[in-house]
Write a structure and sequence with these properties.
Length: 217
């Protein structure tokens, strides 16, 4: 961030009330300004391109057209100078490491106190990485060879997208259209997910996916 100007932030979340809350919270800081907002990945790409230079993009995981993870990954091409911080209600144990692998600079649960959100934004703008203490400890344990994450954490990013869509009640045909791949590819992903989670059939997969999605609400 260049000295002498406020850090420019873009908020990407499909809930207007959440965007408003973050905007009002960030407005209290004299060091940042919200220069644009978006409710989807496609809209975010447009506003980030128009608003450059952007210093930080706050991104939700669940967006109506594509996953926020894809936006985090694409941001390195759209605006290489912009950092990203994911602010989401989804389990950090499943997503935090994926966000870092995608090029994000941190993961913050939406239920955190306002002062922690400000602290996370400041830390990322200062060039650091933000994770909760429990997530930091979990990742350190994984690096030291301790017990691995849950079975769901072992899914690839695309498998996790398919798993989420199954939990939302979507058919293979609907998921195929959503992700832009063939039904055969989706069915292959379903098979891999069942194997990784130790599920015996499609009914067990649907039940587990729905149960997991309910736990994320």
């Amino acid at each position: 961030m260049k000295a002498g100007r406020k850090a420019r932030i873009v908020i990407v979340d499909d809930h207007p009330i959440m965007r408003m809350g973050l905007r009002q919270l960030l407005k209290s800081s004299q060091l940042v300004e919200v220069c644009a907002e978006a409710g989807s990945v496609s809209e975010a790409i447009s506003v980030i391109t128009a608003a450059r230079p952007v210093d930080l993009v706050l991104v939700d995981i669940s967006l109506p057209d594509r996953s926020g993870l894809e936006l985090v990954r694409d941001l390195r091409t759209i605006d290489p100078g912009a950092r990203s911080l994911v602010v989401s209600s989804h389990d950090e144990r499943v997503y935090a490491e994926r966000v870092l692998r995608a090029g994000g600079r941190g993961y913050l649960m939406k239920d955190r106190a306002p002062e922690q959100i400000i602290a996370a934004v400041s830390q990322v703008l200062d060039g650091g990485i933000f994770l909760s203490p429990s997530m930091t400890s979990r990742m350190m344990e994984a690096l030291s060879g301790s017990k691995s994450s849950s079975a769901i954490s072992g899914l690839t990013d695309r498998e996790l997208e398919v798993f989420r869509a199954i939990g939302e009640g979507k058919s293979s045909r609907e998921i195929s259209g959503l992700l832009g791949v063939s039904i055969r590819t989706i069915d292959a992903h379903r098979t891999h997910i069942k194997d990784k989670l130790g599920l015996r059939d499609a009914a067990a997969l649907s039940y587990e996916a729905i149960r997991w999605m309910e736990s994320q609400a």
